Amino acid sequence: MAKATVNYVKACRLTVILYVLFTAVVVTARVLPLHPYVDGKAKPIVNLYDTSKYGILQLGNGLAKTPQMGWNSWNYFRCDINENVIKETADALINTGLARLGYNYVNIDDCWAEPERDSEGKMVPDAEAFPSGMKALADYVHSKGLKIGIYSDAGLYTCQVRPGSLRHEYDDAALFASWDIDYLKYDNCFNMGIDPKERYPPMRDALNSTGRIIFYSLCEWGVNDPALWAGKIGNSWRTTDDIVDTWESMTAIADINDKWAAYAGPGGWNDPDMLEVGNGGMTYQEYRAHFSIWALMKAPLLIGCEVRNMTAETYEILTNEEVIAVNQDPLGIQGRKAHTDGPDDCYQIWAGPLSGQRLVVALWNRCSEPATITAKWGAIGLESSASYSVRDLWKHEFVSQNSVTSFSAQVEPHGCEMYVLAPVTAASST
């Protein structure tokens, strides 16, 4: 009888422990921002879009639930920057409506600092270019409802030989936080040959120690395959070398970034570098393809052109709300290259799941002649008998209300047509 009582008590204790653990898991599940796959409401269509290599919001700072959007100074201005350029760019983001569409980071790249630290070992803004200081500039940008970003390096110097933050991580992070900085791009020059997995975590820890939530963008150039390890360190990580404003550079970078699709998701994104749209080195069709594929790949959409004086074509591309919505879709699955055909595989189909059981599909003609490209359901992971409406995101119209098996489109040389497929229910198809 005594033994039975003891066993009963043990059983009760075990029940209580299991209840507490279960309750803790449930409470945690309620408050943690989980990848939508976890809730059981949305499943991958096929393993073509597998995300099993993605760790859910690993960094845990609450940022980057969707890819970051904004503007960066480097692609257009290089080192020719000053506080007036930054202020006027912030104004332009507001006045053109770009900010309303989500472009809310105003990021200052290299060359903002004096060549040497001051007598106290602190970084100092270039006195000629930024006479009011970074805190005043941040206040101005914040007054517009925007966020401000800055640049440093996980090396002794930046790429333009300004002071780097290697071995100064905590001092520099505290300085950035005191200026109310919202975003840090952290480069890879003059790195002393130290493993990036050793150089990048100290700045993560330093940023977290400030108490200010700062977006952490690793710019490691993909040298050591950061998709494999950067999820617990940063909110985005460069998978490639610097982009150049050419068709050859853009396409090569897209292909490299595509290899790491399974590693991206809410909280941490593959970064194939900033947008070149509007800088003059590519045609309208090429820029439209650039923007389409970056959006489909859930790449950061960081404008790299002069937004104070955009052409109508540049404005049209950057403000396409339907394409932006693909990039910012809450499901957060990076689209990828699903099928290739034609000469040198230049007829390409890129695709990716969206929320609501929808699918984004891009027909990309990387040949130099017009081509008809066909997306067959099997190639993009759909059941051949399923019916889908097809909406053209560049024409802003439905091209079909009930497609089965496949759909086709004529695509200009170096052009890219982009569509969203939505399932047609039995009720709506009758």
Automatic annotation (TrEMBL):
Keyword list, A-Z: Disulfide bond, Glycosidase, Hydrolase, Signal
Keyword Hydrolase attributed: yes
GO biological processes: carbohydrate metabolic process
Record field: catalytic activity: Hydrolysis of terminal, non-reducing alpha-D-galactose residues in alpha-D-galactosides, including galactose oligosaccharides, galactomannans and galactolipids
Alpha galactosidase C-terminal domain residues: 345-421
Top-level division of the source organism's lineage: Eukaryota
SUPFAM superfamilies: (Trans)glycosidases, Glycosyl hydrolase domain
EC number: 3.2.1.22
Record-level Gene Ontology MF annotations: alpha-galactosidase activity
Family: Belongs to the glycosyl hydrolase 27 family.
Protein name: Alpha-galactosidase
Source organism of the structure: Handroanthus impetiginosus
